[in-house]
Amino acid sequence: MNVLVVGANGQIGKMVVEKLQEGKQHNVRAMVRKEEQVADFKSKGIEARLADLEGSVDAIQATMKDIDAVVFSAGSGGSTGYDKTILIDLDGAAKTIEAAEKAGVKRFIMVSSIASNHREKWSEDMKPYMAAKFYADQMLEKSGLDYLIFRPGMLENKPGTGNVKIGTETAIRAIPREDVASTIVSALDYPTISRQAVDLISGDTSIEEALKKLWLN
Amino acid sequence: MNVLVVGANGQIGKMVVEKLQEGKQHNVRAMVRKEEQVADFKSKGIEARLADLEGSVDAIQATMKDIDAVVFSAGSGGSTGYDKTILIDLDGAAKTIEAAEKAGVKRFIMVSSIASNHREKWSEDMKPYMAAKFYADQMLEKSGLDYLIFRPGMLENKPGTGNVKIGTETAIRAIPREDVASTIVSALDYPTISRQAVDLISGDTSIEEALKKLWLN
Question: Where is the NAD(P)-binding domain (chains A, B) (predicted)?
Fold first, then answer.
C-alpha cells in the first residue's frame, strides 16, 4: 500500500514514517508543510509531499495521488492559539477527510485523543482541543471512508513496550508515543478493522494480539 | 407551537422573542444563561428557562420539555477568545442539536453566517468563527432533525425593511438584524420548508413571498 502520513513532522508522525520505511511492506509518503521538511525527508530517502492544512482541499488532495491509506497525526500543538485549534485540529482534519474521499483513498487512520468522545471528561484547559478532536472524529465517522480512529491516552516519550490495551471504554491512562506509532503501522495490515473508534493505552497485550481481538470483535 | 429561543438575550434572539410574543400565534420560551436574564424576561411576561451552553446536553435538554421548535441564535460574541468560539458557537450548538433530538423536538432553525459554507470566502480574521459555524451546521445537517439553516449576510442594526433575498448562492450583502428575526418568525409557519440551508440578505421580495418561493422549491 502507498501510505500518506499527514503531520509527518510531528512526534508520532515521524515515528510512523520511520517504521513504515524500515518495514518495507508499504511505501510511505510524508505530507509536510515546509520546503525544508521535504528536503529533510528526501535526505533520508523518503518521498515527501508539500501541503498546508490551512490551505485548500484541492491542494491537500493533490498529495493523495496513488495513495491507498492516510494516517492523520497532525496537530496544531500546544504553543499556538485556539484559532489554530479550530483551523488545524478540526478544519485541517476535516479537509483531509474530504480530500481523501475525493481522491478515492480507501483507508483513513486518525490519531485522536482519549476521552475526546466524552464531554464530561474534558478537563477545563483541554476543552477546546478535545472539542476540535471530537468534531474531527465525527466528520470522519460521518464520511464514507473506511476509517479507524485511535484515541491514545496521555502521550509519553518513553520507549515503547509493545504492549497495549485497545478498547472502547478503557481507563484514562498513558501510552508511549512509540507504541501509538507501532499500533498504527500494524493496523494497516488489518484492513478488516474498519469503521471503528477505539481507545489506545498501555496494557499487557501485544499490539498484534490486541489488533487481532479488535478484528474478531 | 411552543418555541424555544436559544440565545434569547442576544441581539437577534431578543427580537425573535419579542416578535413571537407580539404575534401570539406561538408560545415563546427564552433560553438564557443568567438568573437576572430570567427575571428580565419574566417581568415582560415571557417564560424563560435557564441553561448554559457550556453545560451538559442533559441540562440543555431539560429546557426542551414540551418544545416543538428550537431557534438557535446564540453566539459567543466578538469580545471573547477563540476557546469560546469552539465551546459556544460549535460545541454549544452541537449540544443543543443533540438535546433537541433527544427531547423529540420537531423543528430546528439555525442562525448561521453567510459564506460559512464556502471556506475560500472566509476572511482571515473571521476564519475560526466561520469554521465553528460551518461545523455546527454540518452537525445539524447530519442530524435527524427537521432543520432550516439561515445564513444571514453582514448584520446591521438598521430597522428592518421587510424585504429580503433568500437563496443558496446569493451575493455577500448586508441585512438588518430585524429582517433576520422576522424571517425566522415567519419561517415557523412554513413547516414544509425542511432540511434546507439558505443565504439570507436584503433584497426586494417580501419575507412572505421569499419563503413561499423557498417552499415551492
Answer: 7-190
User: Grid coordinates representing B96?
Assistant: 443543543
Contact by Cβ (8 Å): B168, B213:
no
Between CA B72 and CA B76 the distance in angstroms is 12
- A59 vs B contacts (CB less than 8 Å): none
Greatest CA separation found in chain B?
A: 46
| Integer Rg of chain B from CA | 16
Spatial separation of the C-alpha atoms in residues B197 and B200, rounded to whole Å: 10
d(CA B168, CA B150): 10
Say what the pTM is. Answer: 0.95
Q: Binning pLDDT at 50, 70 and 90, where does residue B195 land?
A: very high
Sheet holding A146-152, edge to edge: A47-50, A27-32, A2-6, A69-72, A107-111, A146-152, A196-202, A163-167, A205-206
Using the Cβ of B140 and the Cβ atoms of chain A, whether some distance falls under 8 Å is answered with no
Q: How would you write chain B as a 3-class SS string?
A: CEEEEECCCCHHHHHHHHHHHHHCCCEEEEEECCHHHHHHHHHCCCEEEECCCCCCHHHHHHHHCCCCEEEECCCCCCCCCHHHHHHHHHHHHHHHHHHHHHHCCCEEEEECCCCCCCHHHCCHHHHHHHHHHHHHHHHHHCCCCEEEEEEECEEECCCCCCEEEEECCCCCCEEEHHHHHHHHHHHCCCCCCCCEEEEEEECCEEHHHHHHHHHHC
- Ordered by where they begin, the domains of chain B are 2-216 (3.40.50.720)
Catalytic residue among B82, B129, B147, B190: B129
pLDDT per position as a tens digit, B85-105? 999 999 999 999 999 999 999
Residue among B87, B119, B131 minimizing CB distance to A128: B87
**Chain A contact present for B114, CB below 8 A:** no
Q: For an interface test with B, which of A82, A86, A116, A124 has the most B Cβ atoms less than 10 Å from its Cβ?
A: A86
* pLDDT for residue A216 is more than 90: no
